[in-house]
Design a protein that fits this description.
Layout lengths: L1 H26 L22 H10 L2 H21 L2 H9 L1 H13 L2 H8 L4 E2 H11 L14 H13 L4 E4 L2 E3 L2 H4 L7 H6 L11 H17 L1 H5 L8 H7 L10 H10 L2 H6 L5 H5 L5 H13 L7 H4 L1 H4 L10 E6 L5 H9 L3 E7 L1 H6 L9 H6 L2 E5 L17 E5 L7 H14 L5 E5 L30 H10 L4
Parallel strand pairs: 4-5, 4-7, 5-6, 7-8
Antiparallel strand pairs: 1-3, 2-3
């Protein structure tokens, strides 16, 4: 009975909103707490009122996070049920255009420009002028004419219609809570002088948008061509890799089979035979490499602070580690997770391991707030290859903990086994290993279901509320 299902989904939404509202009332004191408004920006570098601090703390609690996920799952499933299939299909297949608009907003520094414009927003003509003033190169270059107020207005209206900006009056746009997450806190003067370091000392959200909108979106376009080699028609990048001598030469079945076995969608998209990290470390990709480290810092947005710091959630007793305990953050990039642990537990020493090029840039990701940890030597970096023999630490002690956060999902099972065997060989008698990664439950009732109740109207894996993990999974399988 469809109406029965719709009513059940409607009830799920109402019940969880009731739970959120009751929790907010319980935590309220003289100043009642309210759920943050989507229309009001919350800039990371702006001072926080006591009220804002309280709501931020409350929204990070696991019970609140899970209630929000249930609301999102029920809303998504209700929409999927009532929406016309054609409308839903076109929304889904055109999602890449929204991604392109978000990437443009980040690359053009729209969020920073609108932050300085204030809550009344900025007219698209003035906004276009500001965007051009921040671009490097000749101001009268022919390509500068590609951007004009009319084209910019159409892009920004897509974002406003998708609730990523506010159109406060015709052709006047302002930030909202969602867009303000991408604010780097940099002044327009700083961006004009050196946009290369835009992402330093930020929450990583802007870097993540730039990264996903750049290579991830491009790689996804080639998924079909890789899985179905017969669809590879007229692709210059593929022909350049194979060097047939004539881009119009018809490929034999043997050539198609060879491409299917030795290339990935990433290789097809960027015309390279290199693996992802080797390609990322090319001199011409220096900006991408720097951005990648900061984007990894942004992935901490998926977690509440309780997930790695609260022993009740992780079941790991950080407080019980001995004085001077060593945490090795394997493949930790700039060290976003382990830095938080070092801040919370002063008796823990952190060593972050990653590739040499990542390690060289990592300290620059952290601002003044974290400098005491770096200067004291409690957080350090060292370069290491996952698959090479593990060299003893300069501290001359065995690690107490190995942390692999969002690492193993990048590798095939046999490679993951090699990584773990290297760590096992380096472990002391009491060394522990923590693996933090996304689990992908089936979309049906199963032992790994997030919603185990068979009478729940929700998909057992929470549907659209869990979609990020599944999208990342497809993406990782598209990169060498």
């Amino acid at each position: 009975m469809t109406f029965t299902s719709l009513r059940a989904l409607h009830k799920c939404i109402g019940d969880d909103i009731d739970d959120l509202e009751n929790l907010y009332k319980e935590r309220s004191r003289s100043d009642p707490l309210d759920f943050p408004s989507m229309d009001v920006p919350r800039y990371a570098k702006a001072p926080r009122s006591a009220h804002e601090e309280a709501t931020d703390e409350l929204n990070a609690e696991p019970s609140v996070v899970f209630a929000i996920r249930r609301i999102k799952a029920a809303c998504g499933q209700l929409t999927a049920t009532v929406d016309r299939p054609w409308d839903a299909l076109m929304d889904a297949v055109r999602a890449s255009q929204l991604s392109a608009c978000l990437r443009f907003m980040e690359a053009a520094h729209i969020v920073e420009i609108l932050r300085e414009a204030g809550p009344n927003g900025m007219h698209v003509k003035d906004l276009c002028r500001s965007v051009k003033e921040l671009r490097p190169g000749e101001k009268d270059a022919p390509d500068q004419e590609n951007l004009n107020p009319e084209r910019l207005g159409h892009i920004l209206r897509v974002l406003a219609t998708s609730h990523w900006l506010l159109e406060v009056s015709p052709d006047v746009f302002a930030n909202n809570r969602r867009s303000s997450l991408m604010d780097t806190g940099k002044s327009l003067e700083e961006l004009h002088v050196d946009a290369m370091w835009k992402y330093a000392d930020t929450n990583g959200a802007a870097a993540a948008v730039g990264q996903v909108g750049d290579y991830a979106s491009k790689v996804s376009v080639y998924l079909t061509e890789w899985l179905l080699p017969d669809t590879r028609v007229g692709s210059d990048s593929i022909d350049a890799i194979e060097s047939t001598g004539d881009i119009h030469t018809k490929r034999t079945s043997t050539q198609i089979d060879r491409m299917a076995r030795y290339l990935t969608p990433f290789n097809l998209a960027f015309g390279t035979k290199l693996g992802f990290f080797q390609w990322l470390e090319l001199p011409e990709n220096r900006h991408r490499l720097v951005r990648f480290g900061h984007a990894m810092k942004g992935t901490s947005q998926w977690e509440t602070k309780h997930e790695f710091l609260d022993a009740k959630v992780t079941a790991f007793p950080w407080k019980e580690l001995p004085q001077g305990a060593i945490l090795v953050d394997v493949g930790g990039g700039v060290g976003s997770t382990s830095m938080a642990i070092a801040q919370a537990y002063s008796h823990i020493h952190v060593v972050v391991e990653d590739r040499e090029q990542v390690v060289d840039n990592a300290p620059n990701a952290w601002g003044p707030e974290h400098q005491p940890l770096l200067k004291s030597g409690r957080v350090t970096w060292r370069s290491r290859d996952f698959f090479a023999k593990w060299e003893p630490l300069a501290l001359k002690r065995d690690p107490n903990v190995f942390l692999l956060r969002l690492i193993l999902h990048n590798w095939q099972d046999e490679d993951s086994v090699k990584i773990l065997r290297r760590l096992r060989a380096a472990a002391g008698l009491d060394t522990k290993i923590i693996i933090g990664d996304m689990l992908l439950p089936h979309a049906c009732i199963s032992q790994d279901a997030l919603i185990a109740h068979e009478h729940s109207p929700l998909l057992p894996n929470l549907g659209v509320a869990s979609i990020q993990g599944y999208l990342i999974d497809v993406m990782q399988r598209s990169v060498p």
